[in-house]
Automatic annotation (TrEMBL):
Residues 68-90 have a biased composition (Basic and acidic residues). This is RNA polymerase sigma-54 factor RpoN. One of its GO terms (biological process) is DNA-templated transcription initiation. Belongs to the sigma-54 factor family. The lineage of its organism: Bacteria, Pseudomonadati, Planctomycetota, Planctomycetia, Pirellulales. Residues 49-90 are annotated as: Disordered. Pfam families: Sigma54_AID, Sigma54_CBD, Sigma54_DBD.
Length: 498
């Protein structure tokens, strides 16, 4: 084999995404609120971009009117950057603009006194209505501790204990007491730590700073209640058997009847296994629908893009005029050309987003009419590739279009991804969505004989009778996802005994 060193020229096709194409895909993927922020950022960076302004409550009285694309005269057409021909046609058109246009331009928007006052009022209302930070678990416990008359050293250790508690963990003490004391601590120091722990455990909520589940539940029991001793026995020695519904074993070990054990279990369900979790800061995001789905008088669905808050953009007239100024240097002209290019790409990307999102939504609604009319049990299997083929775009375009988008329907506000579900085929060859199978599974379990609940194999047989062929492992997977316990855990032993 002969080896040689040399240069060779090869032709190959490599697909690359231009920066502007990446920008278009990013804008398509943005929900309405994110798009508003992106537009505001672009307007701060590109002085050629302007937006139609006016009173949002009375849009007919806008300060600037943007002519429709189809009705613009020859001189009002949008500028399109053409580097190959140095924008000869656009510059010629700019130089021949109507001389009756105003000779001076103010590139800044000056608000009226009333508008400035309204903006100030809105900002004040926003600050006044802002949600205050809720009190944390640690603050709540420290406030109670400060009101207690205890030894300073005990109080210091108690503060250390409180600092280790976490609301997301339910408020349990996971750190050994010895780790909260200095190295080489004495027996008296440890006794002080135990005293401090007892103080913290006496605070509200009841069961806080417990070291395990049994200690947490015992702390919530009132010694004066009926069955206090029986409840204590179950908590200390039989929590695992209760969780697995092994009531006969508990009855055999304790001598309690099945009926009493079931009654005690119901009382235990009233206790809180995670008392500190009530102080978790739950964040519920505000959902703004991007698409509005309405029904007309004939019952047909109409898709409307809710982009009223997205400003209408156009290229600044001031910079159009600036191009024909005699003192416009080459560097300034090149700068304006680049900004025109960026502005036009943004405007086109927003328009493309509007068109794609509308067409994709219409195709989804057309496919899922039964779901919208009849409810979740009527949803049909749908893949993104089906919508992509129908709309005539790539499947990744559909994925970006529905990502983080919400649609307002007669059945509530739903994510667009909710309409895409997998499925299987019945024995008759009919497609059935997994959501339909899950609803049927829930129905079977709700109606089963609790003295002899269905096993997963039994559920497979019952689904097959309904025309749904599903594997046992699939039934097990969906049962667990739905939070449905096993057949042994669902069994009602009182019915079995009777």
């Amino acid at each position: 084999m002969r080896m040689s060193v040399g240069l060779q020229a090869r032709q190959s096709q490599v697909q690359k995404l231009a920066p502007r194409m990446i920008q278009s895909m990013e804008i398509l993927q943005m929900p309405t609120l994110a798009l508003q922020e992106r537009i505001e950022q672009e307007m701060n960076e590109n002085p050629l971009l302007e937006q139609q302004t006016g009173d949002p409550l009375n849009p007919d009285e806008g300060d600037d009117e943007v002519p429709d694309k189809d009705t613009r005269s020859e001189n009002e057409k949008e500028l399109v950057v053409d580097n190959d021909h140095d924008n000869k046609d656009d510059f010629e058109r700019l130089l021949n603009m109507d001389s009756d246009l105003p000779s001076t331009f103010d590139d800044s928007f000056r608000q009226s006194a009333n508008r400035m006052s309204d903006d100030a009022d809105r900002r004040h209302d926003m600050m006044a209505n802002a949600q205050s930070r809720p009190e944390s678990l640690n603050d709540y416990l420290l406030h109670q501790l400060a009101e207690m008359d205890i030894d300073d050293e005990v109080e210091q250790i108690a503060e250390r204990i409180i600092s280790t508690l976490n609301a997301s963990d339910g408020g349990y003490l996971r750190m050994p007491l010895a780790d909260l004391l200095p190295s080489g601590h004495s027996k008296e120091d440890y006794e002080k730590a135990e005293e401090a722990l007892a103080v913290v455990q006496s605070l509200e909520p009841s069961g806080i700073a417990a070291r395990n589940l049994s200690e947490c539940l015992i702390a919530q029991l009132d010694s004066s209640i009926e069955h206090f001793d029986e409840l204590s026995i179950l908590i200390r020695g039989h929590l695992n058997d209760l969780a697995e519904n092994r009531l006969p074993q508990i009855s055999k070990k304790t001598g309690f009847s099945i009926e009493l054990i079931q009654e005690l279990r119901e009382e235990l369900h009233l206790l809180n296994p995670k008392p500190g979790a009530a102080f978790l800061e739950t964040y519920v995001p505000n959902v703004t629908p991007d698409i509005i789905l309405e029904q007309d008088e004939s019952g047909e669905y109409r898709v409307r893009l809710d982009d009223d808050r997205v400003p209408t953009l156009f290229i600044s007239e001031y910079y159009r005029r600036r191009l024909q100024a005699s003192d416009c240097s080459d560097a300034e002209r090149e700068f304006i050309k680049q900004k025109i290019n960026g502005a036009q790409w943004l405007i086109d990307s927003i328009e493309q987003r509007r068109s794609t999102l509308t067409r994709v939504s219409e195709a989804i609604v057309e496919h899922q009419k039964r779901f919208l009319d009849e409810g979740p049990e009527a949803i049909e299997p749908l893949k993104m590739q089906q919508i992509a083929d129908k709309v005539g775009v790539h499947v990744t375009t559909v994925s970006r279009a529905v990502d983080d988008k919400w649609i307002q329907t007669p059945r509530g506000i739903l994510p667009l991804r909710r309409f895409f579900v997998g499925g299987t085929q019945t024995e008759d060859g009919e497609d059935v969505a997994w959501d339909t199978i899950r609803l049927k599974l829930q129905e079977l379990i709700d109606k089963e004989d609790k003295s002899k609940p269905y096993s997963d194999e039994n559920l497979v047989d019952e689904l097959k009778k309904a025309g749904m062929t599903v594997a046992r492992r699939t039934v097990t997977k969906y049962r667990k996802k739905m939070g449905i316990p096993s057949s042994r855990q669902r069994r009602d032993w009182s019915l079995t005994a009777s």
